[in-house]
Design a protein that fits this description.
8-stranded mixed β-sheet, 8-stranded parallel beta barrel
Length: 578
Protein backbone atom coordinates (compact mmCIF):
# COMPACT_ATOMS: atom_id res chain seq x y z
CA UNK A 1 0.00 0.00 0.00
CA UNK A 2 1.50 3.32 -1.07
CA UNK A 3 1.97 6.17 1.39
CA UNK A 4 -0.63 8.97 1.32
CA UNK A 5 0.88 12.45 1.46
CA UNK A 6 -0.96 15.51 2.80
CA UNK A 7 0.24 19.09 2.98
CA UNK A 8 -0.71 21.93 5.30
CA UNK A 9 0.73 24.91 7.12
CA UNK A 10 3.73 24.24 9.37
CA UNK A 11 2.53 25.94 12.56
CA UNK A 12 4.94 24.64 15.22
CA UNK A 13 8.36 23.22 14.31
CA UNK A 14 9.34 19.62 14.81
CA UNK A 15 9.07 16.06 13.48
CA UNK A 16 6.98 13.27 15.00
CA UNK A 17 6.16 9.63 14.18
CA UNK A 18 3.26 7.98 16.06
CA UNK A 19 -0.21 6.40 15.70
CA UNK A 20 -3.34 8.49 15.12
CA UNK A 21 -5.70 9.65 17.89
CA UNK A 22 -8.87 11.01 16.28
CA UNK A 23 -10.30 13.91 18.27
CA UNK A 24 -13.58 14.18 16.38
CA UNK A 25 -17.18 14.35 17.51
CA UNK A 26 -18.70 10.86 17.48
CA UNK A 27 -22.10 9.97 16.04
CA UNK A 28 -24.52 9.90 18.98
CA UNK A 29 -27.71 9.36 16.98
CA UNK A 30 -30.09 6.69 18.26
CA UNK A 31 -33.56 5.30 17.61
CA UNK A 32 -36.37 5.49 20.14
CA UNK A 33 -37.58 1.93 20.74
CA UNK A 34 -40.43 0.51 22.79
CA UNK A 35 -39.39 -2.16 25.29
CA UNK A 36 -41.18 -4.56 27.61
CA UNK A 37 -38.03 -5.37 29.59
CA UNK A 38 -37.61 -2.16 31.56
CA UNK A 39 -35.28 -3.79 34.10
CA UNK A 40 -32.82 -4.74 31.35
CA UNK A 41 -32.79 -1.13 30.12
CA UNK A 42 -32.28 0.16 33.68
CA UNK A 43 -29.37 -2.26 34.07
CA UNK A 44 -27.85 -0.91 30.81
CA UNK A 45 -28.34 2.63 32.12
CA UNK A 46 -26.65 1.86 35.47
CA UNK A 47 -23.70 0.26 33.68
CA UNK A 48 -23.37 3.34 31.45
CA UNK A 49 -23.47 5.61 34.53
CA UNK A 50 -20.76 3.53 36.22
CA UNK A 51 -18.57 3.76 33.08
CA UNK A 52 -19.12 7.53 32.86
CA UNK A 53 -18.20 8.00 36.55
CA UNK A 54 -14.97 6.02 36.02
CA UNK A 55 -14.08 8.10 32.94
CA UNK A 56 -14.84 11.47 34.55
CA UNK A 57 -12.93 10.53 37.72
CA UNK A 58 -9.89 9.68 35.61
CA UNK A 59 -10.16 12.95 33.65
CA UNK A 60 -10.53 14.90 36.92
CA UNK A 61 -7.39 13.32 38.40
CA UNK A 62 -5.36 14.00 35.25
CA UNK A 63 -6.65 17.59 35.02
CA UNK A 64 -5.82 18.18 38.70
CA UNK A 65 -2.26 17.00 38.18
CA UNK A 66 -1.55 18.73 34.87
CA UNK A 67 -3.74 21.85 35.06
CA UNK A 68 -4.37 22.39 38.77
CA UNK A 69 -7.23 21.97 41.24
CA UNK A 70 -9.19 24.96 39.91
CA UNK A 71 -9.25 23.59 36.35
CA UNK A 72 -10.40 20.20 37.67
CA UNK A 73 -13.47 21.67 39.41
CA UNK A 74 -15.60 21.38 36.27
CA UNK A 75 -15.15 17.60 36.42
CA UNK A 76 -16.13 17.58 40.10
CA UNK A 77 -19.38 19.24 38.99
CA UNK A 78 -19.85 16.51 36.35
CA UNK A 79 -19.45 13.81 38.99
CA UNK A 80 -22.09 15.48 41.17
CA UNK A 81 -24.55 15.41 38.27
CA UNK A 82 -23.77 11.74 37.55
CA UNK A 83 -24.41 10.85 41.19
CA UNK A 84 -27.52 13.03 41.63
CA UNK A 85 -30.46 10.68 42.40
CA UNK A 86 -33.02 13.28 41.29
CA UNK A 87 -31.60 13.11 37.76
CA UNK A 88 -30.87 9.37 37.58
CA UNK A 89 -34.17 8.31 39.21
CA UNK A 90 -36.17 10.39 36.72
CA UNK A 91 -34.46 8.61 33.80
CA UNK A 92 -35.25 5.21 35.35
CA UNK A 93 -38.87 6.25 35.99
CA UNK A 94 -39.17 7.36 32.37
CA UNK A 95 -37.95 3.94 31.18
CA UNK A 96 -40.57 2.21 33.34
CA UNK A 97 -43.54 4.48 32.65
CA UNK A 98 -42.96 5.15 28.94
CA UNK A 99 -41.59 1.66 28.17
CA UNK A 100 -38.76 3.12 26.07
CA UNK A 101 -35.07 2.28 25.70
CA UNK A 102 -32.49 3.89 27.99
CA UNK A 103 -31.17 6.22 25.23
CA UNK A 104 -34.61 7.77 24.63
CA UNK A 105 -35.35 8.17 28.35
CA UNK A 106 -31.96 9.79 29.02
CA UNK A 107 -32.45 12.22 26.11
CA UNK A 108 -35.97 13.16 27.26
CA UNK A 109 -35.03 13.86 30.88
CA UNK A 110 -31.70 15.60 30.15
CA UNK A 111 -33.34 17.88 27.57
CA UNK A 112 -35.96 18.88 30.17
CA UNK A 113 -33.29 19.79 32.76
CA UNK A 114 -31.02 21.53 30.23
CA UNK A 115 -33.87 23.77 29.02
CA UNK A 116 -35.02 24.39 32.60
CA UNK A 117 -31.60 25.55 33.85
CA UNK A 118 -30.62 27.38 30.65
CA UNK A 119 -33.75 29.50 31.01
CA UNK A 120 -32.79 30.82 34.46
CA UNK A 121 -31.30 34.05 33.14
CA UNK A 122 -31.26 35.66 36.59
CA UNK A 123 -29.18 32.81 38.04
CA UNK A 124 -25.82 32.34 36.26
CA UNK A 125 -24.89 29.45 38.59
CA UNK A 126 -27.92 27.40 37.53
CA UNK A 127 -27.33 28.31 33.87
CA UNK A 128 -23.85 26.77 34.16
CA UNK A 129 -25.44 23.54 35.42
CA UNK A 130 -27.19 23.23 32.03
CA UNK A 131 -23.78 22.85 30.36
CA UNK A 132 -22.75 20.26 32.98
CA UNK A 133 -25.89 18.19 32.37
CA UNK A 134 -25.36 18.35 28.60
CA UNK A 135 -21.75 17.12 28.89
CA UNK A 136 -22.65 14.37 31.34
CA UNK A 137 -25.65 13.19 29.30
CA UNK A 138 -23.52 12.93 26.17
CA UNK A 139 -21.00 10.81 28.05
CA UNK A 140 -23.66 8.44 29.39
CA UNK A 141 -25.29 8.26 25.94
CA UNK A 142 -21.93 7.43 24.37
CA UNK A 143 -21.49 4.59 26.89
CA UNK A 144 -24.97 3.27 26.06
CA UNK A 145 -24.15 3.33 22.34
CA UNK A 146 -20.70 1.82 22.83
CA UNK A 147 -19.09 4.91 21.27
CA UNK A 148 -15.79 6.38 22.51
CA UNK A 149 -15.92 10.06 23.46
CA UNK A 150 -12.63 11.80 22.70
CA UNK A 151 -10.83 13.16 25.75
CA UNK A 152 -7.39 14.68 25.21
CA UNK A 153 -6.73 14.78 28.98
CA UNK A 154 -6.83 10.96 29.20
CA UNK A 155 -4.25 10.23 26.49
CA UNK A 156 -1.59 8.01 28.10
CA UNK A 157 0.39 6.67 25.12
CA UNK A 158 2.34 8.30 22.31
CA UNK A 159 -0.06 9.58 19.64
CA UNK A 160 -0.58 12.24 16.99
CA UNK A 161 -3.86 14.07 17.58
CA UNK A 162 -6.03 14.61 14.50
CA UNK A 163 -8.94 17.08 14.66
CA UNK A 164 -11.03 19.41 12.54
CA UNK A 165 -9.77 22.17 14.82
CA UNK A 166 -8.54 22.42 18.41
CA UNK A 167 -10.04 24.86 20.91
CA UNK A 168 -7.73 26.55 23.43
CA UNK A 169 -9.18 24.27 26.14
CA UNK A 170 -8.51 21.16 23.99
CA UNK A 171 -4.92 22.30 23.45
CA UNK A 172 -4.44 23.07 27.14
CA UNK A 173 -5.29 19.43 27.96
CA UNK A 174 -2.60 18.00 25.69
CA UNK A 175 0.22 16.32 27.60
CA UNK A 176 3.33 16.71 25.46
CA UNK A 177 4.82 13.59 27.07
CA UNK A 178 2.29 11.59 25.03
CA UNK A 179 0.98 13.95 22.33
CA UNK A 180 3.86 14.03 19.87
CA UNK A 181 2.13 16.35 17.35
CA UNK A 182 -1.27 17.45 16.12
CA UNK A 183 -2.75 18.00 12.67
CA UNK A 184 -6.00 19.86 11.86
CA UNK A 185 -8.25 20.51 8.88
CA UNK A 186 -8.42 24.27 9.41
CA UNK A 187 -6.35 27.07 10.96
CA UNK A 188 -3.25 29.11 10.21
CA UNK A 189 0.04 30.03 11.88
CA UNK A 190 -1.78 32.70 13.88
CA UNK A 191 -4.72 30.57 15.11
CA UNK A 192 -4.89 30.03 18.88
CA UNK A 193 -4.21 26.31 18.60
CA UNK A 194 -1.03 27.01 16.60
CA UNK A 195 0.17 29.63 19.08
CA UNK A 196 -0.45 27.28 22.02
CA UNK A 197 1.31 24.42 20.20
CA UNK A 198 4.44 26.56 19.98
CA UNK A 199 4.16 27.36 23.69
CA UNK A 200 3.84 23.65 24.50
CA UNK A 201 6.62 22.78 22.02
CA UNK A 202 4.37 20.30 20.22
CA UNK A 203 4.93 20.00 16.42
CA UNK A 204 1.77 21.05 14.58
CA UNK A 205 0.44 21.24 11.04
CA UNK A 206 -2.84 23.08 10.42
CA UNK A 207 -5.00 23.84 7.40
CA UNK A 208 -4.74 20.42 5.70
CA UNK A 209 -8.46 20.76 4.76
CA UNK A 210 -9.35 17.05 5.00
CA UNK A 211 -7.02 15.10 7.30
CA UNK A 212 -9.96 13.89 9.43
CA UNK A 213 -11.53 12.29 6.33
CA UNK A 214 -8.34 10.50 5.26
CA UNK A 215 -6.87 9.05 8.45
CA UNK A 216 -8.40 6.65 10.98
CA UNK A 217 -7.53 5.48 14.48
CA UNK A 218 -4.51 3.19 14.37
CA UNK A 219 -2.93 4.66 11.23
CA UNK A 220 0.74 5.58 11.67
CA UNK A 221 1.72 9.12 10.69
CA UNK A 222 4.90 11.03 10.03
CA UNK A 223 4.36 14.72 10.79
CA UNK A 224 7.07 16.94 9.32
CA UNK A 225 6.13 20.30 10.83
CA UNK A 226 9.29 21.86 9.41
CA UNK A 227 7.94 21.47 5.86
CA UNK A 228 4.19 21.14 6.47
CA UNK A 229 3.99 17.52 5.24
CA UNK A 230 2.02 14.57 6.67
CA UNK A 231 2.71 10.99 5.52
CA UNK A 232 -0.03 8.43 6.26
CA UNK A 233 1.11 4.81 6.84
CA UNK A 234 4.69 5.40 5.63
CA UNK A 235 7.10 2.65 4.59
CA UNK A 236 9.95 1.52 6.84
CA UNK A 237 12.40 3.36 4.56
CA UNK A 238 10.41 6.60 4.95
CA UNK A 239 10.28 6.15 8.73
CA UNK A 240 14.06 5.65 8.83
CA UNK A 241 14.60 8.73 6.62
CA UNK A 242 12.48 10.94 8.91
CA UNK A 243 14.10 9.54 12.05
CA UNK A 244 17.39 10.83 10.62
CA UNK A 245 15.81 14.20 9.84
CA UNK A 246 14.40 14.40 13.39
CA UNK A 247 17.84 13.62 14.83
CA UNK A 248 19.39 16.39 12.68
CA UNK A 249 16.74 18.85 13.90
CA UNK A 250 17.41 17.85 17.52
CA UNK A 251 21.14 18.49 16.92
CA UNK A 252 20.27 21.94 15.51
CA UNK A 253 18.18 22.69 18.61
CA UNK A 254 21.11 21.63 20.81
CA UNK A 255 23.27 24.21 19.01
CA UNK A 256 20.66 26.92 19.58
CA UNK A 257 20.49 26.01 23.27
CA UNK A 258 24.10 27.15 23.65
CA UNK A 259 22.77 30.69 23.10
CA UNK A 260 20.45 30.70 26.15
CA UNK A 261 22.62 33.13 28.11
CA UNK A 262 23.95 35.03 25.07
CA UNK A 263 22.92 38.60 24.28
CA UNK A 264 20.74 39.27 21.21
CA UNK A 265 23.32 41.15 19.15
CA UNK A 266 23.92 41.54 15.41
CA UNK A 267 27.28 40.81 13.81
CA UNK A 268 28.11 44.53 13.95
CA UNK A 269 27.15 44.95 17.62
CA UNK A 270 23.55 46.23 17.55
CA UNK A 271 21.46 44.92 20.48
CA UNK A 272 17.73 44.17 20.29
CA UNK A 273 15.48 42.63 22.94
CA UNK A 274 14.09 39.14 22.32
CA UNK A 275 11.03 38.58 24.50
CA UNK A 276 8.37 35.87 24.67
CA UNK A 277 4.58 35.72 24.60
CA UNK A 278 2.73 33.87 27.38
CA UNK A 279 -0.86 32.93 28.22
CA UNK A 280 -0.52 31.75 31.85
CA UNK A 281 2.03 31.97 34.70
CA UNK A 282 2.99 28.35 33.92
CA UNK A 283 4.43 29.52 30.58
CA UNK A 284 7.17 31.52 32.34
CA UNK A 285 9.22 28.33 32.78
CA UNK A 286 9.58 28.05 28.98
CA UNK A 287 10.41 31.76 28.72
CA UNK A 288 13.35 31.41 31.11
CA UNK A 289 14.54 28.08 29.68
CA UNK A 290 14.69 29.62 26.21
CA UNK A 291 16.68 32.65 27.34
CA UNK A 292 14.08 35.35 26.57
CA UNK A 293 14.99 38.82 27.86
CA UNK A 294 11.46 39.72 28.90
CA UNK A 295 7.78 39.06 28.28
CA UNK A 296 6.47 41.13 25.40
CA UNK A 297 2.88 39.91 25.68
CA UNK A 298 1.01 38.36 28.59
CA UNK A 299 -2.40 37.41 27.17
CA UNK A 300 -4.54 37.89 30.28
CA UNK A 301 -7.73 36.70 28.56
CA UNK A 302 -6.74 33.11 29.42
CA UNK A 303 -7.31 34.01 33.08
CA UNK A 304 -10.92 34.69 32.10
CA UNK A 305 -11.32 31.88 29.57
CA UNK A 306 -10.04 29.23 32.01
CA UNK A 307 -12.46 30.27 34.78
CA UNK A 308 -16.15 29.55 35.36
CA UNK A 309 -16.78 33.15 36.44
CA UNK A 310 -14.97 36.49 36.33
CA UNK A 311 -11.62 36.07 38.11
CA UNK A 312 -11.51 38.12 41.30
CA UNK A 313 -9.07 40.95 41.97
CA UNK A 314 -7.06 38.72 44.33
CA UNK A 315 -6.95 35.81 41.85
CA UNK A 316 -5.65 38.14 39.15
CA UNK A 317 -3.19 39.79 41.53
CA UNK A 318 -1.66 36.41 42.41
CA UNK A 319 -1.26 35.50 38.72
CA UNK A 320 0.37 38.82 37.79
CA UNK A 321 2.58 38.79 40.90
CA UNK A 322 3.80 35.26 40.09
CA UNK A 323 4.86 36.29 36.58
CA UNK A 324 6.52 39.57 37.65
CA UNK A 325 8.48 37.89 40.45
CA UNK A 326 9.58 35.02 38.20
CA UNK A 327 10.94 37.47 35.62
CA UNK A 328 13.13 39.10 38.30
CA UNK A 329 13.12 42.69 37.06
CA UNK A 330 12.92 41.93 33.33
CA UNK A 331 10.16 43.80 31.47
CA UNK A 332 6.70 42.23 31.46
CA UNK A 333 4.11 43.68 29.06
CA UNK A 334 0.64 42.75 30.28
CA UNK A 335 -2.20 43.22 27.80
CA UNK A 336 -5.53 44.03 29.40
CA UNK A 337 -8.42 41.69 28.67
CA UNK A 338 -8.79 40.96 24.95
CA UNK A 339 -12.12 39.12 24.90
CA UNK A 340 -14.38 39.07 21.85
CA UNK A 341 -13.93 37.98 18.27
CA UNK A 342 -13.32 34.23 18.58
CA UNK A 343 -12.58 34.44 22.33
CA UNK A 344 -15.86 34.12 24.20
CA UNK A 345 -16.68 33.69 27.88
CA UNK A 346 -19.59 31.43 28.84
CA UNK A 347 -20.45 33.78 31.71
CA UNK A 348 -20.30 37.02 29.68
CA UNK A 349 -23.17 37.46 27.26
CA UNK A 350 -21.92 39.30 24.18
CA UNK A 351 -24.22 40.51 21.41
CA UNK A 352 -24.51 38.35 18.29
CA UNK A 353 -22.67 40.25 15.58
CA UNK A 354 -22.26 39.90 11.82
CA UNK A 355 -18.51 40.46 12.22
CA UNK A 356 -17.37 40.09 15.84
CA UNK A 357 -13.71 40.73 14.93
CA UNK A 358 -14.71 44.28 13.99
CA UNK A 359 -17.22 44.60 16.80
CA UNK A 360 -17.61 44.75 20.54
CA UNK A 361 -14.32 43.39 21.86
CA UNK A 362 -11.12 44.14 23.84
CA UNK A 363 -10.80 47.78 24.98
CA UNK A 364 -14.32 48.46 23.70
CA UNK A 365 -15.72 46.06 26.30
CA UNK A 366 -13.34 47.38 29.00
CA UNK A 367 -14.40 51.00 28.48
CA UNK A 368 -18.06 49.95 28.50
CA UNK A 369 -17.74 47.62 31.51
CA UNK A 370 -15.46 49.77 33.66
CA UNK A 371 -16.28 47.68 36.76
CA UNK A 372 -14.61 44.67 35.13
CA UNK A 373 -11.80 46.86 33.78
CA UNK A 374 -11.06 48.44 37.16
CA UNK A 375 -10.88 45.01 38.83
CA UNK A 376 -8.14 44.03 36.40
CA UNK A 377 -6.31 47.36 36.73
CA UNK A 378 -6.41 47.21 40.55
CA UNK A 379 -4.85 43.74 40.43
CA UNK A 380 -2.17 44.90 37.99
CA UNK A 381 -1.32 48.03 39.97
CA UNK A 382 -1.08 46.07 43.24
CA UNK A 383 1.24 43.56 41.52
CA UNK A 384 3.40 46.32 39.99
CA UNK A 385 5.65 46.51 43.08
CA UNK A 386 6.83 42.93 42.42
CA UNK A 387 8.61 43.58 39.13
CA UNK A 388 8.94 45.62 35.95
CA UNK A 389 5.32 45.98 34.83
CA UNK A 390 4.25 47.51 31.52
CA UNK A 391 0.52 47.82 30.82
CA UNK A 392 -0.80 47.62 27.26
CA UNK A 393 -4.29 48.38 25.95
CA UNK A 394 -5.51 46.26 22.98
CA UNK A 395 -7.60 47.21 19.95
CA UNK A 396 -7.05 50.96 20.25
CA UNK A 397 -8.39 52.83 17.20
CA UNK A 398 -8.43 56.45 18.37
CA UNK A 399 -6.54 58.74 20.71
CA UNK A 400 -9.81 59.33 22.59
CA UNK A 401 -9.94 55.60 23.44
CA UNK A 402 -6.37 55.63 24.75
CA UNK A 403 -7.02 58.76 26.82
CA UNK A 404 -10.20 57.20 28.29
CA UNK A 405 -8.38 53.97 29.19
CA UNK A 406 -5.48 55.93 30.68
CA UNK A 407 -7.93 58.04 32.71
CA UNK A 408 -9.49 54.89 34.22
CA UNK A 409 -5.98 53.62 35.02
CA UNK A 410 -4.97 56.92 36.66
CA UNK A 411 -8.21 57.07 38.69
CA UNK A 412 -7.75 53.47 39.84
CA UNK A 413 -4.17 54.20 40.88
CA UNK A 414 -5.31 57.25 42.87
CA UNK A 415 -7.92 55.11 44.68
CA UNK A 416 -5.31 52.53 45.65
CA UNK A 417 -2.86 55.15 46.89
CA UNK A 418 -5.66 56.70 48.96
CA UNK A 419 -6.31 53.26 50.47
CA UNK A 420 -2.63 53.06 51.42
CA UNK A 421 -1.80 50.35 48.88
CA UNK A 422 1.74 50.43 47.45
CA UNK A 423 1.91 51.01 43.69
CA UNK A 424 5.03 51.31 41.52
CA UNK A 425 5.81 54.78 40.21
CA UNK A 426 7.56 53.37 37.16
CA UNK A 427 4.88 51.69 35.03
CA UNK A 428 5.07 52.20 31.28
CA UNK A 429 1.71 52.39 29.53
CA UNK A 430 1.41 51.57 25.84
CA UNK A 431 -0.94 50.32 23.16
CA UNK A 432 -1.13 47.51 20.66
CA UNK A 433 -0.95 48.77 17.12
CA UNK A 434 -3.31 46.39 15.34
CA UNK A 435 -5.82 48.74 13.71
CA UNK A 436 -4.58 50.58 10.58
CA UNK A 437 -6.09 53.88 11.81
CA UNK A 438 -3.78 53.79 14.85
CA UNK A 439 -0.78 52.82 12.69
CA UNK A 440 -1.38 55.76 10.34
CA UNK A 441 -1.64 58.17 13.30
CA UNK A 442 1.31 56.64 15.17
CA UNK A 443 3.12 60.01 15.12
CA UNK A 444 0.26 61.47 17.20
CA UNK A 445 -0.05 58.48 19.58
CA UNK A 446 3.72 58.50 20.14
CA UNK A 447 3.47 61.85 21.93
CA UNK A 448 1.23 60.29 24.62
CA UNK A 449 2.11 56.60 24.99
CA UNK A 450 5.29 55.10 26.48
CA UNK A 451 5.60 52.37 23.84
CA UNK A 452 3.98 50.59 20.94
CA UNK A 453 3.65 46.85 20.43
CA UNK A 454 2.62 45.90 16.92
CA UNK A 455 0.06 43.09 16.80
CA UNK A 456 0.67 41.90 13.26
CA UNK A 457 -1.87 39.05 13.37
CA UNK A 458 -4.74 41.55 13.29
CA UNK A 459 -2.92 44.45 11.63
CA UNK A 460 -2.32 42.33 8.51
CA UNK A 461 -5.88 41.02 8.24
CA UNK A 462 -7.41 44.46 8.79
CA UNK A 463 -5.04 46.17 6.34
CA UNK A 464 -5.59 43.53 3.65
CA UNK A 465 -9.34 43.18 4.42
CA UNK A 466 -8.79 39.42 4.59
CA UNK A 467 -9.95 37.22 7.48
CA UNK A 468 -6.86 35.27 8.53
CA UNK A 469 -8.99 32.20 9.37
CA UNK A 470 -10.79 32.13 5.99
CA UNK A 471 -9.09 29.67 3.65
CA UNK A 472 -10.70 31.29 0.58
CA UNK A 473 -8.74 34.51 1.15
CA UNK A 474 -5.71 33.12 2.99
CA UNK A 475 -3.50 34.11 0.05
CA UNK A 476 -4.07 37.74 1.08
CA UNK A 477 -2.59 37.22 4.55
CA UNK A 478 0.76 38.66 3.47
CA UNK A 479 3.18 39.72 6.24
CA UNK A 480 5.80 40.71 3.65
CA UNK A 481 3.54 42.84 1.47
CA UNK A 482 5.23 46.24 0.96
CA UNK A 483 2.07 47.96 2.28
CA UNK A 484 2.40 46.13 5.63
CA UNK A 485 6.14 46.84 5.81
CA UNK A 486 5.48 50.54 5.11
CA UNK A 487 2.98 50.75 7.99
CA UNK A 488 5.38 48.99 10.38
CA UNK A 489 8.25 51.30 9.41
CA UNK A 490 6.04 54.34 9.96
CA UNK A 491 5.11 53.14 13.48
CA UNK A 492 8.74 52.44 14.45
CA UNK A 493 9.97 55.80 13.09
CA UNK A 494 7.16 57.67 14.87
CA UNK A 495 8.07 56.13 18.24
CA UNK A 496 11.78 56.84 17.81
CA UNK A 497 11.12 60.46 16.89
CA UNK A 498 9.47 60.91 20.33
CA UNK A 499 12.13 58.91 22.18
CA UNK A 500 9.83 55.91 22.68
CA UNK A 501 10.32 52.24 21.75
CA UNK A 502 8.40 49.82 19.55
CA UNK A 503 8.03 46.09 19.99
CA UNK A 504 6.16 43.48 18.02
CA UNK A 505 4.11 40.71 19.63
CA UNK A 506 2.45 39.24 16.56
CA UNK A 507 3.68 35.98 15.07
CA UNK A 508 5.66 37.96 12.49
CA UNK A 509 8.21 38.82 15.21
CA UNK A 510 9.50 35.24 15.23
CA UNK A 511 9.13 34.67 11.48
CA UNK A 512 12.62 33.92 10.14
CA UNK A 513 11.86 35.67 6.83
CA UNK A 514 10.53 38.79 8.57
CA UNK A 515 13.29 39.13 11.21
CA UNK A 516 15.96 40.59 8.85
CA UNK A 517 13.43 43.18 7.60
CA UNK A 518 12.25 44.13 11.10
CA UNK A 519 15.85 44.44 12.24
CA UNK A 520 16.56 46.78 9.34
CA UNK A 521 13.45 48.84 10.12
CA UNK A 522 14.69 49.48 13.66
CA UNK A 523 12.34 47.31 15.70
CA UNK A 524 13.48 47.46 19.34
CA UNK A 525 11.79 44.39 20.82
CA UNK A 526 10.81 41.11 19.14
CA UNK A 527 8.29 39.09 21.18
CA UNK A 528 7.39 35.58 20.03
CA UNK A 529 6.61 32.05 21.18
CA UNK A 530 9.37 31.11 23.62
CA UNK A 531 10.42 28.22 21.38
CA UNK A 532 11.34 30.67 18.59
CA UNK A 533 13.70 32.81 20.70
CA UNK A 534 16.94 30.85 20.31
CA UNK A 535 16.74 30.28 16.56
CA UNK A 536 15.93 34.00 16.15
CA UNK A 537 18.93 34.94 18.31
CA UNK A 538 21.08 32.66 16.14
CA UNK A 539 19.81 34.32 12.95
CA UNK A 540 20.33 37.87 14.29
CA UNK A 541 23.93 37.05 15.28
CA UNK A 542 24.72 36.37 11.60
CA UNK A 543 23.28 39.63 10.26
CA UNK A 544 24.77 43.12 9.91
CA UNK A 545 22.45 45.96 10.91
CA UNK A 546 23.70 48.25 8.13
CA UNK A 547 23.04 45.55 5.51
CA UNK A 548 19.56 44.92 6.90
CA UNK A 549 18.75 48.64 6.86
CA UNK A 550 19.55 48.69 3.15
CA UNK A 551 17.51 45.50 2.68
CA UNK A 552 14.43 46.94 4.44
CA UNK A 553 14.71 50.18 2.47
CA UNK A 554 14.84 48.26 -0.80
CA UNK A 555 11.91 46.01 0.17
CA UNK A 556 9.69 49.00 1.00
CA UNK A 557 10.67 51.31 -1.84
CA UNK A 558 11.48 48.99 -4.74
CA UNK A 559 9.51 45.76 -4.30
CA UNK A 560 5.91 45.65 -5.51
CA UNK A 561 4.82 42.22 -4.26
CA UNK A 562 5.28 40.01 -1.21
CA UNK A 563 6.96 37.40 -3.42
CA UNK A 564 9.62 39.90 -4.51
CA UNK A 565 10.29 40.75 -0.86
CA UNK A 566 10.74 37.07 0.07
CA UNK A 567 13.20 36.55 -2.80
CA UNK A 568 15.14 39.62 -1.68
CA UNK A 569 15.33 38.44 1.95
CA UNK A 570 16.30 34.88 1.03
CA UNK A 571 19.19 36.15 -1.09
CA UNK A 572 20.36 38.45 1.73
CA UNK A 573 20.25 35.67 4.36
CA UNK A 574 22.09 33.25 2.05
CA UNK A 575 24.79 35.87 1.56
CA UNK A 576 25.03 36.41 5.33
CA UNK A 577 25.43 32.65 5.90
CA UNK A 578 27.99 32.21 3.12
Amino acid sequence: MSTVKLTGIAASDGIAIAPVYLLTEPDLRFETKQTEDSQAEIARLEAAYAQAITEVSKIRDIAKESLGAEEAQVFEAHLLVLQDPEFTDQVKNHIETEKVNAEAALHQVSTFFINLFAGMEDNPYMQERAADIKDVSERVLAALLGVKLPSPATIDEEVIVIAHDLTPSDTAQLNKQFVKAFVTNIGGRTSHSAIMARSLEIPAIVGTKNVTEIVKDGDVLIVDALEGVVLVNPSQDEIAQYQEKAAAYDAQKAEWEKLVAAPSVTKDGHHVELAANIGTPKDVKGVLENGAEGIGLYRTEFLYMDASDFPTEDEQYEAYKAVLESMDGKGVVVRTMDIGGDKELPYLTLPREMNPFLGYRAIRISLDRTDMFKTQLRALLRASVHGNLRIMFPMIATLAEFRSAKAVLDATKAELVKEGVAVSEDIQVGIMIEIPAAAVLAHQFAKEVDFFSIGTNDLIQYTMAADRMNEQVSYLYQPYNPSILTLIKHVIDASHKEGKWTGMCGEMAGDQTAVPLLLGMGLDEFSMSATSVLKTRSLISKLNLTDMQALADKAINECTTAEEVVELVNAAVEAANA
